[in-house]
Design a protein that fits this description.
The structure holds 2 protein chains of 2 kinds. By secondary structure, chain A is of the alpha/beta class. Chain A has 2 domains: 3-204, Rossmann fold (3-Layer(aba) Sandwich); 225-248 and 269-348 and 394-487, no CATH class. Chain A is elongated. Chain A has 15 helices and 10 strands. In chain A, the strands form 2 sheets. Chain A has a 6-stranded mixed β-sheet, sandwiched between helices. In chain A, strands 7-10-9-8 form a 4-stranded antiparallel β-sheet. In chain B, α5 (107-130) runs antiparallel to α7 (159-188) and α5 runs parallel beside α12 (255-290). Chain B has helices spanning 4-18, 23-41, 48-58, 69-96, 107-130, 136-144, 159-188, 203-213, 215-218, 228-233, 248-251, 255-290, 293-303, 364-377, 397-409, 430-443, and strands spanning 105-106, 193-194, 307-308, 336-339, 356-358, 385-390, 415-420, 448-449. Chain B folds into 2 domains: 69-302, no CATH class; 336-449. In chain B, 54% of the residues lie in helices and 6% in strands. By secondary structure, chain B is mainly alpha-helical. In chain B, β7, α16 (430-443) and β8 form a beta-alpha-beta unit. Chain B is built from 16 helices and 8 strands. Classes of the chains: A alpha/beta, B mainly alpha.
Chain lengths: 488, 459
């Protein structure tokens, strides 16, 4: 390992875990998930030499443990042959492994083996990763024998990369070489399993238990904090979107007879601005959860796209029923969801709201034009002056608030559950019934009340802002619970 | 020392600047501040002013030295109001004391002005406490004319209390300059005060009114408390010219009362209410700071440990490049080696004997023996050396070593790798074949990769 990446491996110090194994067996995906780093290249070219890379967990600058991602074994049988030729008894094996590393440090043939064995001979625990989706083969026994020779505490991790399942045979084979054998799906394992795995690392040596316990405590708190921060971000975006206005200033001569072009132009700007704000919220949430490389399926949104904020499909998925809106969040029966028809769209809820016309054929795809949005034309404005201003917005229909909230909560949930080893594009499929049904009555009522306040374009005061964040936080918790119940 | 208002404005400026920074950086910065504070001063509550000063000091600025444009503007507004107040005080008192020797100065008018001042002071106080902004149009227009001041900033909810403070200060100066004008006039002029009213009021009633006004000081300054006799003697009527019986000095005896009334009912209330306005402004500034959107976030950043999981660590690995070569058809040959237990059942029916083995868990010596046997059996008619591998296993350096040794044992004979899918008659997917093609390109030696033609997977 080079000096720049060297870490303190001395026993009794910070626990270090070397993640080792055969090439392309998911070592990096395990490290990516545990270190929450989605920039780690998962599918590296096997056989291309790389250096070990430490990923320390620092809390206020204090390292609690370090994961070291290592290159895979390239010549395990040759290494084992060398070790066997230089050992007399079981007692000298760790020393012999160290001697091998010292002797071959500059030998390019064994660079990968030296890289992966260096942290181990310096005291790191061994996390041996295998792919449970490919059949067990005895050829990896040489690797496992070398690792056993190091005498370091070890744990085997069965990480399923592909669809097939050979976990059982791997489990029985690995049990002969390793103290602990765990199954861990680096791409799909929920957060609780990440913590469980870290705690299992702590079981490898008594003095590692406490720092790993501490680390899981901090990670748990970090996750709780992120949920609160997400709630604040969502509440902030929702408030902005519900009170957003577009305006255009015209000379009085032109403003006297505003035509459809003015309204259509403002409307289009308003739509785009809302989409941009939603996009910003999504980026903020992804950054918060340290997802920097997500490819979203709706990345290139067009207005007629099914996943667009104003698409009919979006309305069907996230809108709520008219009864629900009318009963201040206490709507009996179905809240909404796919197939519901009795929505308020097209009904003017706000006094003075002018409802825009349909955009011809686009209407069937696009619910946006049926939203009640306040439009004030220059004609409606009092007062004189050479310049007059026409405004479009804010939206008068609470339906829009529920749609934005539903989409935001859904996106948050997918991001918060996504492991950093995941490389699939983020898909946000609609569901068949409505998530709001799981929220407590008080939460629904408060949510409705605050949305009504925002619809009136009232600035939320300090207490209401906090209340809004709290209610969105409850919504996030409710949505998570709803998803878990649906999955089980 | 900067007050809460300055702190609020400086905090808002910092908050606006911080919007451009990454949340991780802000968390590190503010947590570091808190940890340094704890190490120096124990577990004490963080002070926002100190935090701002620290940031300024680290950037090389003198803490608290910069005057914020919002405050500059407000100081200008206040200075204008104060100057106007002072001038008006002089003018008003001069007007009230205007005496051309024809008719006495009416104390009733002066008391009316004092009452008006008192009411104005009280209204200003109520307006400030309630947050009304009667001057919003004027101050808003002034703020909009300042390019470096954002409208709707943190000062917006404080405009009422700010204006109240300015108005009270202006009123105070009005009172002070008025009093000075009165005293100067008393010294340099011979003023004749009297009282008159159209109302049918007796001197006795009027004496009760002035006694009530003089109540705060009558106990310790009787000279400034008019007697009933003085009240009776100094009543005058516009059309009555029979005032000659009164001693001329009696007309001037009112001035101590007027001076004390002005001091007690104009200046002191203004002073008191100015204090209320200042305290109210401090309280509201502090509340605005606590309610500032960045305040809770800052406290959170200070209190919450930074957890760095290594998420920002750059990975030095290389992603696969595009392979240049393509697969070749499976050759016909009798020189076949199974690498690491790979099988080709059903694909090579011509082979009668078990496949030669290499790799896997057998020893390196056994690999060498396999190559030795193959070189002994090889004839001119045999095809290339076909090495069967498992497509899902990554090619390792051990295989490269084996192929290198094979070229030594079988000189001049080409080598073909045959990666197999789990179902031998199915072509492995392109991703898996790709790693074998790149491996062959990397090791050279003319090694090729063969694959079965694409077919539907057998059930």
């Amino acid at each position: 390992m080079n000096d720049q990446n060297s870490v303190d491996h001395s026993p009794g110090q910070v626990p270090v875990f070397a993640v080792v194994g055969h090439p392309n067996r998911g070592k990096s995906s395990v490290v990516a998930t545990l270190s929450q780093n989605d920039r780690i290249a998962i599918a590296l070219e096997p056989g291309t030499t790389r250096v070990s890379q430490p990923y320390p967990l620092n809390v206020d600058g204090r390292t609690l443990y370090t994961l070291v991602d290592t290159p895979g074994f390239q010549r395990p049988r040759r290494v084992l042959e060398w070790l066997q030729a230089h050992s007399l008894s079981a007692s000298d094996r760790p020393e012999t492994v160290a001697a091998f590393v010292h002797q071959h440090r500059d030998n390019p043939r064994f660079r990968d083996e030296c890289e992966l064995l260096t942290p181990i001979i310096e005291g790191a625990g061994i996390i041996y990763v295998v792919d449970g989706s490919v059949p067990y083969t005895a050829e990896q026994e040489a690797e496992m024998t070398i690792l056993r020779w190091t005498g370091q505490p070890s744990l085997a991790l069965i990480n399923r990369i592909g669809p097939d399942d050979h976990t059982a045979t791997w489990q029985s084979a690995l049990g002969q070489f390793f103290q602990i054998v765990r199954i861990f799906d680096a791409v799909r394992a929920p957060f609780e399993q990440h913590l469980g795995l870290l705690k299992a690392f702590g079981q490898l040596r008594p003095d590692w238990e406490q720092p790993l316990q501490e680390a899981t405590g901090y990670l748990t708190r970090q996750r709780q904090d992120r949920q609160w921060q997400s709630a604040r971000l969502i509440a902030e975006a929702l408030a902005e979107m519900l009170t957003h206005q577009e305006s255009s200033t015209l000379p009085k001569s032109l403003a006297a007879n505003p035509d459809r072009t003015l309204e259509d132009g403002l409307r289009e700007k308003w739509y785009q601005s809302q989409r941009d704000r939603e996009e910003k919220l999504r980026r903020d949430i992804e950054t918060l959860y340290q997802h920097h490389c997500i490819a979203r399926q709706e990345a290139a949104l067009a207005w007629h796209h099914d996943h667009d904020l104003f698409s009919e499909e979006t309305r069907q998925a996230w809108g709520v029923s008219r009864t629900y809106l009318a009963t201040a969040g206490f709507g009996a029966g179905a809240v909404g969801g796919a197939g519901i028809d009795a929505l308020t769209l097209g009904h003017s809820l706000g006094t003075g709201a002018l409802i825009g016309g349909l955009l011809g054929a686009a209407g069937s795809y696009f619910y946006g034009d049926r939203l009640a949005v306040r439009m004030l034309t220059p004609k409606a404005l009092k007062g004189a002056g050479e310049l007059q201003t026409a405004t479009f917005g804010p939206v008068q229909d609470l339906q829009f608030g529920y749609i934005v909230l539903g989409r935001a909560v859904d996106h948050w949930w997918h991001i918060s559950q996504r492991n950093h080893a995941g490389r699939d594009p983020l898909a946000l499929p609609p569901s068949d019934h409505h998530w709001l049904e799981t929220l407590a009555g008080d939460t629904r009522k408060t949510l409705q009340r605050l949305l009504v306040r925002l619809r009136k374009q009232s600035r939320l005061n300090h207490r209401e802002t906090q209340e809004f964040s709290t209610v969105v936080h409850s919504a996030l918790g409710g949505y998570d619970q709803w998803r878990r119940e649906n999955a089980s | 020392m900067p007050g809460h208002l300055e702190t609020l404005l400086a905090f808002d400026r910092q908050y606006q600047r911080d919007q451009q920074q990454s949340p991780a950086f802000l968390h590190r910065r503010d947590r570091r501040y808190r940890m340094d504070l704890d190490s120096r001063a124990g577990n004490q509550t963080p002070d926002i002013r100190h935090w701002l000063d620290q940031l300024q000091a680290l950037s090389g600025a003198t803490p608290g030295s910069a005057t914020l444009p919002e405050l500059r503007l407000w100081r200008r507004i206040t200075a204008g109001f104060v100057a106007a107040g002072a001038l008006l005080g002089v003018l008003t008192m001069s007007g009230l004391l205007y005496y051309d020797g024809g008719q006495q100065i009416n104390v009733t008018v002066i008391l009316g002005v004092i009452l008006l001042q008192l009411l104005l002071a009280l209204y200003t106080a109520v307006q400030g406490l309630a947050g009304w902004q009667p001057w919003a149009m004027v101050t808003g227009a002034l703020l909009r004319r300042q390019p470096d001041i954002a409208t709707g900033g943190p000062l917006k909810p404080l405009t009422g209390p700010l204006m109240a403070r300015t108005a009270q200060l202006s009123g105070l100066l009005f009172g002070i300059t008025g009093l000075i004008t009165l005293l100067v006039s008393v010294v340099i002029q011979d003023l004749a005060f009297g009282w008159t009213t159209t109302l049918a009021t007796s001197a006795d009633t009027w004496h009760r009114v002035v006694s009530w006004i003089a109540a705060p000081w009558s106990g310790w300054l009787p000279a400034a408390s008019p007697s009933l006799q003085l009240v009776e003697e100094t009543r005058f009527f516009r059309l009555d010219s029979a005032n000659g019986a009164v001693d001329p000095a009696r007309w001037g005896a009112w001035w101590p009362f007027i001076a004390m009334a002005w001091l007690s009912w104009v200046i002191l209330p203004r002073l008191l209410l100015l204090g209320v306005a200042v305290i109210d402004l401090r309280r509201k500034s502090r509340r605005a700071l606590i309610r500032h959107p960045g305040y809770q976030a800052l406290l959170w950043r200070m209190e919450t440990p930074t957890v760095d999981t290594g998420a920002e660590t750059a990975d030095g690995g290389q992603l696969p490049r595009q392979h240049r070569s393509t697969t070749v058809p499976v050759p016909t040959t009798s020189l076949v080696v199974s690498w690491a237990g790979a099988t080709a059942a059903g694909l090579l029916p011509d082979l009668s004997q078990p496949l030669a083995r290499a790799g896997g868990n057998q020893s390196l010596q056994a690999d060498r023996d396999t190559l030795g046997q193959l070189s002994e059996l090889a004839t001119e008619d045999d095809g290339p050396l076909l090495v069967i591998t498992r497509s899902w296993e990554p090619p390792t350096a051990e295989l490269a070593d084996f192929l290198e040794e094979a070229t030594d044992h079988l000189p001049g004979r080409s080598i073909v790798l045959l990666p197999m899918a789990q179902d031998a008659v199915v072509r492995p997917d392109d991703q898996r074949l790709g790693q074998w093609l790149r491996f062959a390109e990397r090791i050279g030696m003319g090694v090729q990769v063969a694959a079965v033609e694409a077919r539907e997977k057998t059930s």
